[in-house]
Automatic annotation (TrEMBL):
This is SulP family inorganic anion transporter. The keyword Nucleus does not apply. It is a multi-pass membrane protein. GO terms for biological process: transmembrane transport. One of its GO terms (cellular component) is membrane. Residues 17-380 form the SLC26A/SulP transporter domain. It holds the Pfam family Sulfate_transp. The chain crosses the membrane at residues 21-41, 47-63, 70-86, 92-110, 122-140, 169-187, 194-211, 245-267, 325-355, 375-403. It comes from Pukyongiella litopenaei. Its main location: membrane.
Length: 420
């Protein structure tokens, strides 16, 4: 459970620091618009995304079990966070995140890091695609610039409301969103080492300001961003509130644990390394506790940002520390500039993020899987979209374990009639 940073600092030198410094700044430029967009899509204030990236990102790199893991708010949490805020308010989210941090700390100290292997892969794939669908549909309102007083949370109700509001389409807004998406794709292919996300969003947002287009920005919708971190406060915990929010806390802890360990495993394959799963869980627990104390969002290891860190030359957890400190510096110095970021540009960014989350390159492989695994993936996906993430994960894991037992030819239980 020893943090990786203690191992890597033994042989740390100026060359490694130069590589980590460049990679950390690059990842920060990717994380900045993503953190803002994820917070907005989650129903929270934009600044909450930056707070999470700074506090949680720093703690995940400082205490984590991976050399190159980058932590912060991720798209996987949007559905859960939106639901918790809608039902329990932002203070309820803070309490649920705080409890999730405690759950993850206990899981790490009990060495539960390897339990991820018991979660069937089709379940993970199913709820990931389901979350991606929900994220993409939630951004259509901002992408098209529709005039809607309220967007229903329920999936089919949301689609119906979007369809009824189709006549309010804002052409400049749609154009900014589509151009942003096109620029992100082009920059990702032409210059993969560049922070293409912030470049694309900055270009289209500058066009909005330069030509005074009738397009919403962060500042016009939410006001000015704060220039610094808020003071830490301990959430007010009482028995009734804890019991009420416990299911949400377990879902947040589950998602944080699964995504962080998946991200660490992906990173291991990219750098031929080996992460420490229990240290990673402890880091996730500390990060979510820290984020909650500053009023932030749930956090976990981010696969896309971790891969960006590796491609940019990050070698040790110092790159993650630099990433968090760079975002803090931007918040302190250039917060007013971030307010000019256009809402459809962020919407386009999140739609592409959702597309990448669904991993379309793997869809042909799913079609070649066993029928039972295809069924498990579809059931989890459908329940995630039309029902609830808690139900989807619970049903998916239960069905997956039953299928696994059946494959191992475990004999059925020898039921005996009760004697009454």
């Amino acid at each position: 459970m020893k943090p990786k940073i203690l191992t890597t600092l033994r042989t740390y030198d100026r060359q490694l620091f130069s590589a980590d410094l460049a990679a950390g700044i690059t990842v920060a430029m990717v994380a900045l618009p993503l953190s803002l967009a994820i917070a907005i899509a989650s129903g929270a204030e934009p600044a909450k995304g930056l707070v999470t990236a700074i506090v949680a990102g720093f703690l995940i790199s400082l205490l984590g079990g991976s050399r190159v893991q980058i932590g912060g708010p991720t798209g996987a949490f949007i559905v859960v966070v939106f639901g918790v805020i809608a039902e329990h308010g932002h203070d309820g989210l803070v309490i649920a995140t705080f409890m999730a941090g405690l759950i993850l700390l206990v899981a790490g100290f009990l060495r539960a890091g390897r339990l991820i292997q018991l979660v069937p892969e089709p379940v993970i794939n199913g709820f990931t695609i389901g979350i991606a669908i929900i994220i993409a549909t939630s951004q259509l309102n901002d992408l098209f610039g529709l005039s809607m007083s309220e967007v229903p949370a329920e999936f089919f109700g949301k689609l119906g409301a979007l369809w009824h509001a189709r006549d309010s389409l804002n052409v400049p807004t749609l154009a900014i969103g589509l151009v942003t998406m096109a620029l992100i794709v082009v920059l990702r292919r032409a210059a993969p080492r560049w922070p293409g996300l912030i470049v694309a969003v900055a270009i289209t947002s500058a066009l909005v300001a330069l030509f005074d287009l009738p397009v919403d920005t962060i500042q016009s919708r939410f006001g000015d961003l704060p220039r610094g971190l808020p003071a830490p406060t301990i959430p007010a915990l009482d028995t009734a509130r804890v019991v009420e929010l416990l299911p949400s806390a377990f879902i947040i802890a589950f998602l944080a644990g699964v995504e962080s360990l998946l991200s660490a495993m992906v990173a291991d394959r990219m750098i031929a390394g080996r992460h420490r799963s229990n240290a990673e869980l402890i880091a996730q627990g500390a990060a979510n506790l820290g984020s909650a104390l500053f009023g932030g969002l749930p956090a976990t290891g981010a696969i896309a940002r971790t891969a960006t860190n590796i491609r940019a030359g990050g070698k040790t957890p110092v790159a993650g520390l630099v990433h968090a400190l760079t975002i803090l510096l931007v918040m302190l110095v250039a917060a007013p500039l971030a307010g000019y970021l256009a809402m459809p540009a962020l919407a386009g960014l999140l739609i592409l993020t959702a597309w990448n989350m669904s991993e379309p390159h793997r869809w042909p492989d799913y079609l070649r899987d066993r029928r039972s695994e295809q069924f498990l993936l579809v059931v989890t996906l459908v329940l995630t979209v039309v029902a609830d993430l808690t139900i989807a994960i619970g049903v998916g894991v239960a069905m997956g374990l039953a299928i696994r037992l059946q494959r191992r030819a475990v004999p059925p239980s020898d039921w005996k009639p009760p004697q009454r």
